[in-house]
């Protein structure tokens, strides 16, 4: 049995970096195989008015766009064994990361945690009603699921990896049960030909672009923490295969499952839709188990990364206490159904900061850092990543410019692309201007260094 993780924000020793692409694939695929991802797939059909297969295409395109950036941002985790929040110090400054990206990921992680618990509770509520006729209150159900997930998250990475070896096959089995109920249903609304044709929906560029942005923005909320799990991975190749392949496969599966139910019934939660497709108590109990199991991986990851963000801001807490505190905050948010009732709105709000943050980090890491980081300086408040007062001011300004660009363009223009591109371009321009006017040796200047200058 694996032990509770002891590492906080310090680098993972090379001899412990043994997690290959298969384990990373299992972790990330199971993370995305969850009720909220079903909900997003359903919203692409119900809100975006996209036919099923175009909904799948939009979500996969958004995921591909996000992970084309995330696999680069995750590289410091593989190269140095450091968590993403510590790597953020290189681009945002020692205090900039602790006061901006860490609180942002803490908010994002706790939001996703609450949304998972509430979405699962809605499905649980519907299935219990189908089983017994009793209508259980939503909030207590959500809080029970949240408490279960938060408890597991406290145990750390090794326990998570061990647990997901059990959860993944169960999640796939439960997903197969849901799809089996769809295609064998006598309800004409669930007929395969009808759903695939999606007569009530039609492709529009607005709907497609909107859900590319929603999916990409949702995944980009992982920017500050994407290195957290791959810091146990030995090579960039393992990380790229494990992360990218799992994310794309999960986008296909979850959008199909959520979108199929939405195209058939208009419901945005497939567990609610399938509760009416069978009277078998065995199958209904199986679906209850599916809800409990499929939220585990996502919420362990959400609480774990939120805890890592908190410990980056407040190192004295340590990982264990920080994860407990983050789990408690997420548990509290699980009492507010608005987080799932208006999921699309909340996801767009989170994505409007994630996209510019990704643009700035990519511009700095690829152009100025040359994909290498001075690790000791990340832990030194007076080191080269101090910038001005511990904050890389031009990074913050560039993020603000990117947020403004995100909101300035219509949804049909792919807002997430504008957020990334404008923030990245602004950072490059401002950094070059700063280098030109700053006195040589100034702590605020950013310049392109050769590899021989980077420790």
Description:
Residues 450-455 have low confidence and may be disordered. The chain has 21 helices and no strands. The chain has 455 residues and is an all-alpha fold.
Note the total helix count.
21
Mean pLDDT, all residues: 86
Rg over CA atoms, rounded to whole Å, is 22 Å
- Gross morphology is globular
Distance from first to last alpha carbon: 38 Å
Count of distinct strands: 0
User: Which band does the percent of strand residues land in?
Assistant: under 5%
SSE blueprint:
Elements: H1 21-32, H2 35-46, H3 52-73, H4 75-80, H5 84-92, H6 94-132, H7 138-153, H8 157-184, H9 192-197, H10 205-220, H11 227-230, H12 236-265, H13 270-274, H14 281-294, H15 296-313, H16 318-333, H17 338-341, H18 343-368, H19 375-378, H20 393-408, H21 415-437
Helix pairs in contact: 1-8, 1-12, 1-15, 2-3, 2-12, 3-10, 3-12, 3-18, 5-6, 5-18, 6-7, 6-14, 6-15, 6-16, 7-15, 7-16, 8-14, 8-15, 10-18, 15-16, 18-20, 18-21, 20-21
């Amino acid at each position: 049995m694996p032990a509770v993780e002891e590492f906080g924000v310090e680098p993972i020793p090379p001899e412990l970096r043994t997690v290959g692409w298969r384990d990373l694939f299992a972790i990330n695929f199971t993370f995305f195989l969850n009720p909220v991802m079903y909900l997003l797939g359903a919203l692409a059909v119900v809100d975006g008015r996209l036919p099923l297969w175009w909904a799948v295409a939009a979500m996969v395109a958004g995921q591909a766009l996000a992970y084309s950036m995330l696999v680069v941002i995750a590289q410091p985790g593989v190269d140095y064994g450091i968590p993403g929040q510590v790597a953020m110090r290189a681009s945002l400054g020692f205090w900039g990361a602790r006061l901006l990206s860490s609180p942002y990921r803490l908010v994002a992680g706790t939001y996703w945690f609450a949304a998972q618990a509430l979405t699962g509770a809605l499905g649980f509520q519907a299935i219990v009603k189908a089983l017994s006729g009793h209508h259980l209150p939503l909030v207590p159900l959500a809080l029970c699921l949240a408490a279960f997930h938060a408890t597991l998250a406290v145990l750390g990475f090794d326990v998570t990896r061990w647990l997901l070896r059990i959860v993944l096959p169960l999640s796939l089995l439960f997903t197969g049960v849901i799809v089996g109920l769809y295609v064998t249903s006598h309800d004409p609304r669930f007929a395969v030909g009808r759903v695939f044709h999606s007569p009530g929906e039609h492709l529009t560029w607005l709907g497609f672009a909107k859900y590319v942005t929603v999916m990409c923005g949702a995944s980009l909320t992982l920017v500050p923490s994407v290195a957290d799990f791959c810091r146990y991975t030995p090579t960039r190749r393992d990380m790229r295969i494990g992360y990218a392949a799992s994310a794309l496969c999960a986008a296909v599966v979850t959008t199909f499952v959520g979108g199929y139910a939405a195209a058939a019934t208009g419901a945005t939660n497939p567990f609610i839709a399938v509760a009416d497709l069978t009277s078998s108590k065995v199958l209904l109990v199986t679906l209850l188990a599916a809800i409990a199991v499929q939220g585990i991986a996502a919420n362990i990851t959400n609480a774990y990364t939120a805890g890592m963000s908190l410990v980056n801001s407040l190192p004295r807490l340590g990982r264990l206490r920080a994860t407990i505190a983050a789990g408690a905050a997420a548990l509290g948010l699980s009492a507010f159904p608005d987080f799932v009732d208006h999921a699309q709105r909340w996801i767009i709000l989170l994505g409007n900061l994630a996209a510019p943050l990704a643009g700035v980090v990519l511009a700095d890491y690829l152009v100025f850092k040359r994909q290498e980081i001075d690790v000791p300086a990340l832990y030194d408040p007076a080191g080269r990543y101090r910038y001005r007062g511990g904050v890389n001011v031009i990074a913050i300004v560039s993020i603000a410019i990117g947020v403004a660009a995100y909101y300035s363009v219509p949804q049909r223009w792919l807002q997430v692309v504008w957020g990334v591109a404008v923030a990245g371009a602004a950072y490059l321009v401002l950094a070059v201007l700063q280098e030109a006017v700053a006195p040589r040796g100034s702590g605020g200047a950013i310049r392109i260094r050769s590899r021989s200058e980077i420790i």
